[in-house]
Structure formats: C-alpha cells, structure tokens
Write a structure and sequence with these properties.
alpha+beta; about 150 residues; seven-stranded antiparallel β-sheet
C-alpha cells in the first residue's frame, strides 16, 4: 500500500533540508506527542537510527527506524520495522526556484506477517480518510517549517 503527498514551501531547498535533518529538534517534537524515542548508538558517527515505543489502536507498539539513504539536499529515505510491518518513507526536496521548495513524501507499507497484512487491509478500507489526514499533517508540518524559517 502506498500513500503520498506533496507540499510547496516558500523557503530555499537548502534551508528546508537542514530543518528536515535537524534530528535533535525532530526528536523533541516526536517526544512531545507522547512517543518514547531513543537513538540507537548515539555516540556513533553518522548514527541515524532510533527505537520508538508508541500506542496504536490501544496497544503498545515499538518500531525501529533507520535513515537508509541521504542525498543532500534532495533526498531522505527511512526504513521502519514494527511488528511485521516494514514502512519505507521517501522524502524528496525539489527546488522550484531560489526561494521555493516542493517536498514530496511517499510511504510504502509492506506487511511481512499475517497480522500486519490484516492491519494494512483495514487501512486500505479507510484509505480516503487516511490520505486526507496524511495530507493535512504534511500541510501543517510544511507551514510550521515555513513559519519557523521565515522568522529566523
């Protein structure tokens, strides 16, 4: 199952990319949402891997998230594994002009177990609602980045 969206931000691509790779800031934002997050091997050079614990559908779940590909300032690819579900998140940054950037995010959900397959199937049934929420979250995040970087 694939979900994708894109948003335009009135900020140069280098600044948007720098904001998207400010991992300390992102970690704080995630933890404010009630997700327990810790870096894996925080002392290691280039360590961009995390272990997250969160509630989903009334059940405590965990995920291992790894930055698997990075091509500054145009691409970030994360791989997340949680309870038999693998999620590849691809974030592309495209300079539309000197002061405008398009951010495209694609999620690819790959179930590896029967229970993960059932969960993805239930998500497919609610696909329109899920895509709407995803687009709204992405728009809010893009607006927050734009506001924060314009003030700086």
């Amino acid at each position: 199952m694939d979900i994708s969206t894109k948003e335009d931000i009135a900020v140069p691509v280098e600044r948007v990319y720098a904001e998207a790779t400010n991992f300390d800031h992102l970690e704080r934002q995630i933890m404010r949402r009630g997700i327990e997050l810790r870096r894996v091997n925080p002392e290691g050079a280039g360590s961009h891997a995390w272990h997250a614990v969160f509630n989903f559908r009334g059940k405590a779940r965990s995920a291992d998230i790894t930055l698997v590909e990075e091509a500054a300032p145009n691409l970030l690819v994360y791989r997340s594994v949680s309870d038999g579900l693998e999620v590849m998140t691809r974030i592309e940054f495209v300079a539309l002009s000197r002061s405008r950037t398009r951010v495209a995010m694609d999620l690819e959900l790959k179930p590896k177990t029967l229970s993960a397959r059932l969960m993805v199937q239930s998500l497919k049934l609610a696909r329109a609602n899920l895509e709407k929420k995803f687009r709204l979250r992405m728009a809010d995040y893009a607006q927050a980045i734009e506001d924060r970087l314009k003030r700086a």
